[in-house]
């Protein structure tokens, strides 16, 4: 009997035919228009996924970013990035189906959308895959670093409280990164995006929790100081060298771009949304709601953080120890950050997990190690289907990202570099180009010129932000010892 491989799962021919017949006979209760299990996502689950992806640790570096840019350019840059992200996300939602927006071929991943629009083996497809998956791996590294810093912050705030601020409370980050990695190994065994909705909801609640605490502490500090800190142009060239001022300004733009990153998982999120109404309509509404809510929180947290600390704003508002008290509130905020990052890590890693597993299943269709599902009984729940390849590959992935995090524990610089590296190609260039192809926009028309101008402008920002972040990493490396970084 011939076996069929669908989405990395092996079916015998009889089972596959029965499923196909059920769908063809109109059993819409179980299957979608392509014969796959019916999607159940809503505008609220999609919004939760997006907020989990967007309101990440990047919010904590926004006060520092505004400090480099000042009261005029800082908020303006955040507003511009939010508008660009929302606009290009709306373009990207129209690329979920190729051809007819209601009945055209579904693209299940960002890479599928690229492949449908540019051809399966084109240079653009390969470049997109390289950039997307390197960026997703980089985000896993960045989130591991951020989570370890927050875990250390809990211990350090308690240490400061006990010593009255006399003990510097230095500690090594390695044990915290390893602890986070162990937790991610467990959660990485969640098979796919559609089973992550509950983790995304928890993570979204946590993101609002620590953002609200950071905002409240910033407002309290402004009231305590009885003045608004900062300046119109940001940190002055006298405080840092003129060269460092330029690098920091560029890096700040990268940090803001990183804080808005989610386009490269948008198609994967959209593929969880039920239809009707069309997935495109639901996703546009979810994108608009999510970016609006995110920008509101970003503006409040970044601006009040800068107002509280001015040019001395720390790179991480809750762990850079701009705040020491109340220590118990800081502990709650940092615990919320860690829980949120557990969920965010999974949201960003699932596309890469799925990509590798589908390709390996396609290459080794007869391998039980790759395709066999072992059912494990879980009291009170449905049996868990363990796949040995998934267990080994995802564990290796988490271990590798954890080890690299221990080698390069530079939160601000890594965040800026990731933001710069992924912003233009994945958030702007590919959505714009695919939209032009989908809508058949004539070359040199006013709409085409406007879209290309936006793309070129964002490319220049990406180049500058990348250069600034690399300069920051080089400066950090001068005083760095592998596996011995202390805070």
TrEMBL record:
Membrane topology listed for this record: Multi-pass membrane protein
Keywords carried by this UniProt record: Amino-acid transport, Auxin signaling pathway, Cell membrane, Membrane, Symport, Transmembrane, Transmembrane helix, Transport
Cellular location(s): Cell membrane; Endomembrane system
Record bears the keyword Cell wall biogenesis/degradation: no
Top-rank taxon: Eukaryota
Residue intervals of the Amino acid transporter transmembrane domain: 39-475
InterPro entries per record: AA_transpt_TM (IPR013057)
Keyword flag Transmembrane: yes
GO biological process annotation, one example: amino acid transport
Transmembrane segments: 43-64, 71-92, 133-154, 196-217, 288-307, 327-348, 391-411, 417-437, 449-475
Assigned GO CC terms: endomembrane system; plasma membrane
Pfam families: Aa_trans (PF01490)
GO molecular function, one term: symporter activity
Reported function: Carrier protein involved in proton-driven auxin influx. Mediates the formation of auxin gradient from developing leaves (site of auxin biosynthesis) to tips by contributing to the loading of auxin in vascular tissues and facilitating acropetal (base to tip) auxin transport within inner tissues of the root apex, and basipetal (tip to base) auxin transport within outer tissues of the root apex. May be involved in lateral roots and nodules formation.
Family: Belongs to the amino acid/polyamine transporter 2 family. Amino acid/auxin permease (AAAP) (TC 2.A.18.2) subfamily.
PANTHER family associated with the record: OS05G0424000 PROTEIN-RELATED (PTHR48017)
Protein name per Swiss-Prot or TrEMBL: Amino acid transporter transmembrane domain-containing protein
Source species: Sphenostylis stenocarpa
């Amino acid at each position: 009997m011939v076996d069929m491989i669908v989405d990395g799962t092996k079916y015998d021919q009889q089972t596959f035919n029965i499923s196909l017949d059920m769908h063809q006979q109109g059993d819409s209760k179980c299957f979608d228009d392509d014969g796959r299990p019916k999607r159940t996502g809503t505008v609220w689950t999609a919004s939760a996924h997006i907020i989990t992806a967007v309101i990440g640790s990047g919010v904590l570096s926004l006060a520092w970013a505004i400090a480099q840019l000042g009261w005029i350019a800082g908020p303006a840059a955040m507003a511009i990035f939010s508008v660009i992200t929302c606009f290009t996300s709306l373009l990207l939602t129209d690329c979920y189906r190729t051809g007819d927006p209601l009945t055209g071929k579904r693209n299940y991943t960002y890479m599928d959308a690229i492949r449908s629009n540019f051809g399966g083996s084109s240079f653009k497809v390969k470049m997109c895959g390289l950039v997307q998956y390197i960026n997703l791996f980089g985000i896993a590294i960045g989130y591991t670093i951020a989570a370890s810093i927050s875990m250390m912050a809990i211990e350090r705030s308690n240490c400061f409280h006990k010593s009255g601020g006399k003990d510097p409370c230095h500690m090594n980050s390695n044990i915290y990164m390893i602890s986070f990695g162990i937790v991610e190994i467990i959660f990485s065994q969640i098979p796919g995006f559609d089973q992550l909705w509950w983790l995304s909801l928890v993570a979204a609640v946590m993101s609002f929790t620590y953002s609200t605490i950071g905002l409240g502490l910033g407002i309290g500090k402004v009231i305590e100081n009885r003045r608004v800190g900062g300046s119109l142009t940001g940190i002055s060239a006298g405080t840092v060298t003129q060269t460092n001022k330029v690098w920091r300004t560029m890096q700040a733009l990268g940090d803001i771009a990183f804080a808005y990153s989610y386009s490269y998982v948008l198609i994967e999120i959209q593929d969880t949304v039920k239809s009707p109404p069309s997935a495109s309509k639901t996703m546009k509404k979810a994108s608009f709601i999510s970016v609006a809510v995110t920008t509101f929180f970003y503006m409040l947290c970044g601006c009040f953080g800068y107002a509280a600390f001015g040019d001395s704003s720390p790179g991480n508002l809750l762990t850079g120890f701009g705040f020491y008290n109340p220590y118990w509130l800081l502990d709650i905020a940092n615990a919320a950050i860690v829980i949120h990052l557990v969920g965010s890590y999974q949201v960003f890693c699932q596309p890469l997990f799925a990509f590798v597993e589908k390709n390996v299943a396609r290459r080794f269709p007869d391998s039980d190690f790759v395709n066999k599902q072992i059912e494990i009984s879980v009291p009170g729940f449905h049996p868990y289907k363990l796949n040995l390849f998934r267990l080994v590959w995802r564990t290796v992935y988490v271990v590798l990202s954890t080890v690299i995090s221990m080698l390069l524990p530079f939160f601000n610089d890594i965040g800026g570099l990731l933001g710069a590296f992924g912003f233009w190609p994945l958030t702007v260039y590919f959505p714009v180009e695919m939209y032009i192809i989908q809508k058949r926009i004539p070359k040199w028309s006013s709409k085409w010129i406007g879209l290309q101008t936006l793309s070129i402008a964002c490319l220049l920002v990406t180049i500058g932000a990348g250069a600034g972040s690399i300069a920051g990493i080089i400066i950090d490396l001068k005083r760095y010892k592998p596996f011995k970084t202390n805070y």
